[in-house]
Amino acid sequence: MRFIWIIWFCLQSTFMWACSANSTNGAVPAGPNEEETADTLKLSRQMRVLIKGENLYIGARLDTSYDILYWFKKCMFNNLYTFYQVGIYPNSDFMPLSDPSIKPSHILNLAFSDNISPFSISGYGWCGGNHPYVDNITPTGYNITYQIILDGKPCTDEGAFLVNKVELLVENCILNPAVVQQIDGKNILESPLTIETVRYQIKGNSIEVKLMHEFKNEKPVTVQTYYGMQSMFMDEVYTMTIGGAYSNWTQQNGVSTFNKGAYPDMCCFLEKNHVASQASYLFNTGLGMHNDISDEDIIFIGNSNGKSYHKLISNKEFVKGDKIEWEGVYVWFRTPVFENEQFLCFEGNIEGNRTLFIQTKKGVDTVLPLPEYTNGRFRILESRGDIKIEGNTFYEGKLKVKSNGSTGCVLLLQ
Questions:
Q1: CB atoms within 10 A of CB 243
Q2: How many beta carbons lie within 10 A of that of residue 292, not counting itself?
Q3: Assigned CATH topology for domain 338-413
Q4: CA–CA separation, 168 vs 148, rounded Å?
Q5: Domain boundaries, the chain
Q6: What are 233's strand-pairing partners?
Q7: pLDDT tens digits for 127-180?
Q8: What is the per-residue pLDDT across 247-260, written as a single tens digit (0 to 9) for each?
Q9: 209 has which bridge partners?
């Protein structure tokens, strides 16, 4: 394997965009088979990056059979810079595919509607994200700037790169729909509602998001609804929620909403189609603590025109200088680390580190039989509800877990 990697590295500048010899062009992905593994130690942790104009393409190994491909660009109605498309493509090499801009064999996520950040302002309608003004013509936001950072260094050049770490710093302006001018019969929005600052960190199968809004409105406004972290996962068949009403895989036509009062520890929803799964995990900090919605408010919305949401704000007034923030991580996988009638465990990345997400589907007091490649020390990054993890090391699958119901925790592998 080391010999193959050396060949790739030496020929990168000349043959960067040659197609992988063992990739099947246009193949339709099948479900995971028994030979596949979620063991990321058998795969390269490096990523391929291609920058063409405003387009940022990233390719990484997903499992032993597929790469995951990310495409960032200005998108949605307001041309805000974010991840536009996430897909997969067959690859069984140690290294990721040479061309991360290749058309995916299957698209998992597509920002044809809201990705993150729309507000509903009481009396004035929606703004930001994919939303125009109430006239369905006038933009309600724009991108101010974005910066691509590769292995800790800002990158302003186009080209192809092999890297260990990708970060993206984005600044968008969300315009205030309560302040509108009419010029030559056209509605013009120029007054800012918020400056949205987003830090994306991409590693392996994960996009980590840290977002802040600073309000710039000259007069107070009431945010009727803010969803924040949303999902545009494609063709979902099942949904599951960690700490929520859907504690096991539930047919999509049976998924709806539930309130904070009944499920105050809800922190993550997972969606699954016939190819892969996506988790949208919201951390217990800032708006993720759900202090800006009441117990009677909806905390999760599923099956809404192909979208699912974390609800973060309901009917709260904001004035100039107020700040709000949330953090979360999107994780895609085809093969979980472990799953049975009691547990779902899958691997992702936080701050570039391998991370295990553990969900109990019901009350448990038993050993979680994790595979050998996860052995070692860990740190509990956060836990929800009453889940208890014994010790800080697991070996040969000996991880003792106890909970009274559906809940979860996040372990940072050391």
A1: 23
A2: 17
A3: Immunoglobulin-like (2.60.40)
A4: 5
A5: 116-154+163-333, 338-413
A6: 109
A7: 998 999 999 999 999 999 999 999 999 999 999 999 999 999 999 999 999 999
A8: 999 999 999 999 99
A9: 200, 328
